[in-house]
Each structure stands twice: as structure tokens, then as C-alpha cells.
């Protein structure tokens, strides 16, 4: 049987630097755990625009459809701000999500013990926090029609449409319930059923799917209250399921309260392929950080943790994912710090590639 395949799309800004460290980890698994992957690499975002005039070439899209998993770094940068909306770096990312039909976006927000002091919230509010946001990723106001800027009388009107079908809500809800079953059997669904019809339907469908999961304690919250509760008492949540736009906002909020934006991975999953693996793309939650790109300052941990999610969700290697996560915790507990993690208590300052090397050392020590 051939090795599982991975397409790496480093993208822009710090993307290529952090992805180089992921490459070390992938190679380690091939050499030390007999888990070899066929890795190919291609362009996305501004890097693809510079070469092809589009943020994602058709050939790259076709490759992404064929591989077992896509790993993406980050897209965007000031250089591309002037581009037309249709070829902005972000459009490459959105095309991947849409055409691969990656409807379930898993965004864990976890507070690492060694970093609890970094949160803008009090330590006891966030210490031990471990929640999972499931964001619907291929529909809603991001893709709904009609959309555009139109003339209306003597002025213009900007239109976007929030649109959800029952089946779209249902499959996102099911992904969230399945996750809840593997975690603490607690799920909170967030929408604005008080003002939006799409929210009323969302609540109805999630409740209906919930009947298939009687063990899961399901609750509903208006998304604005959800934002407030996330900041007030985040540990009341375990799994949260919500739509594309609310999920975008709530996941940034949840990420920041862990104090470790440079640490958070994500997985975007679709339907199972012929080989049983889900269509999948993994990427760090952070952006391309153009201000520090190319200086060896970036923290590669979010991107490496995204590969850990790939081990767990695409390659059925949950134990190896845990090995990698534990190695990272060990390195952090030892005080190894990229610039973004350097707090008043100090630590050993390291560059992007030194952080990667330390993680490899910890992996070696785990054998
Ligand atoms: C995210 C980002 C994207 C989004 C952008 C870059 C298009 O904010 O992944 O959360 O809005 O979905
Ligand atoms: Mg976002």
C-alpha cells in the first residue's frame, strides 16, 4: 500500500518558516515511527498570486482534492491589500474550503499550563481551559447569494445573504455531537434565533439531531450572550457549535483568552473519501504575521499542533498525536520560549527553528 499523502501549502508571511518546522516533525515520524508520508508542496495566497495571477491555481486545487490531507500555513500580507477582492489571498483559502466541501471546522481553545499567565483574563478563569468550537465553514453569509454592491436609486447598497439549508445545519451539528460524545458529552449551540430566521431553523435542526444523541447534554445560547459567557466563565463550555460568521468571531475570542494565539491549531473536515478518510485541511489559527516574517521569530507550535490534529483525524494515529502534544507541553514546561511566549518570568529564548529542534528532541526522548 502506498504511503498516505499530504499536500503542504505554506502560503505567505511566516507560513513558510513555521511549515519548515512541521516538515522536521513529519520526517521524524517517517524515520522513527515507521509512519512515512508522501509530501508534496505548492503555492497558495499571495505566493500563488505572484506566480500565477490567482491566489490558488486550478492544478493546486486539483491536487488538494486528491491527497489525504492538506496542511496550510497562512495567507495574506500588506503587499496584497491593493488587489481586487476576487484575487485577494483569502480567496484561495475560501476556494479550498468551499470546493473540498470542508463543512466542519474544529477550533480547539486550550490553555497550556505553562502559559496561563499570558491570558488577559485572571489565571483561575482560564487555567485548564479546554474547549472545542465547531464552526460551520462552507455556507452562511460567507457564501450566500445574492451578494454584491449594487446601485439602488442614487446610492449603492452592499448585500450579503445568510442562508442555511437543513442539511447544511444537520451535518455540522452531527460533527459536533460526534465530538461531544468523545469528550464530555456537553454541547452548546449558538445562533441568533431571536432576530434571524436562519437562527430559528438552526436551533430546530440541532435539537432534532440531538434526539439521536440522548447522552449529550445540549443547550442553546444567543451568540451575543455566548461571546459574553466565553469571556465571563469559559470553563462552563466543552463543545460549541455555531455558524460560519459567528464561529469566525467566537473562535478568535476563545483563542485569545487562552493567551496563546500562536499555539492554536485547527482542522477543517468534510465527507469521507473512498478510502474512508475525511476530506481534510489543517491550519494554524494565527495569520501570516507579515511584521515578523522572515526573522526566525515566529512560533511554529500552532502549525505543528495542526499536524497533530491530522495524525488524529485523518490518519487514525491518536496515540502519536498525543505523543506530539505531550512533547510540546514538555518543551513549554522546560521554559523554552519563542518571542511571543516570553513573559516576565523569563525562559530560554529560541528562534523558530530552534523551537522545532527542541520539539524533535522531546519526541526522541519519548521513545
Ligand atoms: C479565519 C479567517 C478567515 C475567515 C479569513 C482569512 C478569510 O479569519 O479562518 O478565521 O474569515 O474565515
Ligand atoms: Mg477568523
Task: Tell me about this structure.
By secondary structure, this protein is of the alpha/beta class. The chain has two domains: 1-107 and 263-367, Isopropylmalate Dehydrogenase (3-Layer(aba) Sandwich), CATH 3.40.718; 130-257, Isopropylmalate Dehydrogenase (3-Layer(aba) Sandwich), CATH 3.40.718.10. It is 40% helix and 22% strand. It is built from twelve helices and 14 strands. It has helices spanning 15-32, 46-52, 58-66, 89-99, 123-126, 166-182, 197-210, 223-232, 244-257, 301-313, 318-333, 352-365, and strands at residues 5-11, 38-41, 69-74, 104-110, 130-136, 144-152, 155-161, 186-191, 217-222, 239-242, 265-272, 278-284, 336-337, 348-349. The strands form three sheets. It has a ten-stranded mixed β-sheet, sandwiched between helices. Helix 1 (15-32) links the parallel strand 1 and strand 2. Helix 1 packs parallel to helix 12 (352-365), helix 8 (223-232) packs parallel to helix 9 and helix 10 runs antiparallel to helix 11. The model has no long low-confidence stretch (mean pLDDT 96).
Instruction: List each distinct ligand once.
Output: 3-isopropylmalic acid, magnesium ion
The protein's oligomeric status is single chain
What average pLDDT do the residues reach? 96
CATH architecture of the largest domain: 3-Layer(aba) Sandwich
Question: What's the total helix number?
Answer: 12
- Report the sheet with the most strands, covering strand number, pairing sense and barrel closure: 10 strands, mixed
* Fraction in helix: 40-55%
EC number: 1.1.1.85
GO molecular function, one term: 3-isopropylmalate dehydrogenase activity
Subunit structure: Homodimer.
Domain Isopropylmalate dehydrogenase-like: 5-359
